[in-house]
Write a structure and sequence with these properties.
Distance between the termini: 52 Å
Order of helices and strands: HEEEEHEEHHHEEEEEEE
Mean pLDDT: 88
CATH architecture: Roll
Structural class: alpha+beta
Largest sheet: 13 strands, antiparallel
Number of helices: 5
Oligomer: single chain
CATH class: Mainly Beta
Length: 306
């Protein structure tokens, strides 16, 4: 009887723990620096005029976030790129750009190097959403102004490409993919919630993610996410590589995340995106008459805090 009574108590404690509401949020310390080290590998398949055109792309980046100030609802961050790299396997051969290269003849690597350790600011909510990103586009313009060998239309094209990849809207979406994962209200283990984010680069996509708190340990929260991804059919054409382009894509994403229990900062995140659809290139001097072709993309990304 005593054994059964003790077992009953243990079961009741277990049920109570399962139902305990937890407030998942960032708990960062003023003056401390938090890191985000990300590697994203992409496999792009596209068929243009009956010709298969595959591209493999790997982007690496180490970004630091220093808490300059905090109040009851917001964190004010100084953000710095510590290093940036890009490797591409194109049909014409491999291409490699790296901010750590010291080769003045490699303009793209030199520009990436110029972006390193040039601070800009970002404001985070306690739930990980990015309220604002400031001064990053001024920083990009300032860096490009230092390369006098790049002038005229070429400079504007490179500037547009960098703003699409590293501008305020792009940075906001990229950061939020890692940090904007917490619900606004307390949740219990196995409970689900939905977060909506927007990714903006050459392609603008809406992402709706259903997250679930799958485990709680003494040091971390484990969170799983399942998402749908879709571009907006009503979006305007964007200039990409000097051509007006529009993406009509949709797909899915899965995410498995570990967040530090004390700080809420992401200690590890693994995501996989699979999207497909068509790309429209509007009539322009480079592609007279325009063209529409199918494309699929698989992105796999790993983020850690060190």
């Amino acid at each position: 009887m005593k054994y059964l009574f003790n077992l009953f108590l243990l079961l009741m404690v277990s049920v109570a723990c399962q139902g305990q509401k937890l407030k998942l949020a960032l708990h960062l310390t003023k003056g401390n620096t938090y890191n985000m080290v990300t590697t994203t590998s992409s496999a792009v398949k596209q068929t243009i005029n009956g010709q298969l055109n595959n591209i493999e792309l790997t982007i690496t980046g180490n970004t630091s976030f220093k808490v300059l100030n905090a109040d009851d609802s917001l964190y004010y961050m100084e953000v710095n790129y510590k290093n940036l790299g890009m490797k591409m396997q194109l049909p014409t051969g491999p291409v490699n750009f790296d901010s750590q290269k010291k080769d003045p003849s490699d303009i793209m690597s030199s520009i990436l190097s110029g972006l390193v350790n040039k601070p800009f600011t970002a404001t985070f909510t306690k739930s990980g959403k990015v309220r604002s990103v400031e001064n990053v586009e001024k920083m990009i313009s300032s860096v490009l102004d230092g390369f006098t060998q790049v002038q005229g239309p070429q400079k504007e094209q490179i500037k547009n490409q960098f703003i699409q990849s590293f501008g305020e809207k792009a940075i906001k979406g990229n950061i939020e993919m890692s940090t904007a994962i917490f619900p606004e209200v307390p949740v219990s283990k196995n409970e689900k919630w939905t977060i909506n984010t927007t990714l903006e680069s050459a392609m603008t996509a809406k992402i709706s993610t259903v997250y679930q708190l799958t485990d709680v340990t003494p040091t971390s929260y484990a969170i799983h996410g399942d998402a749908t991804i879709a571009t907006n059919a009503n979006d305007n054409y964007k200039e990409v590589n000097g051509m007006p382009m529009k993406y009509n894509m949709s797909g899915t994403m899965t995410a498995d995340i570990k967040a530090d229990k004390a700080t809420g900062w992401i200690s590890e995140s693994k995501t996989k995106q699979t999207i497909s659809g068509t790309v429209e290139i509007k009539d322009n001097p480079k592609v007279p008459g325009g063209i529409t072709f199918p494309m699929s993309v698989v992105n796999e990304s790993v983020t850690t805090d060190k």
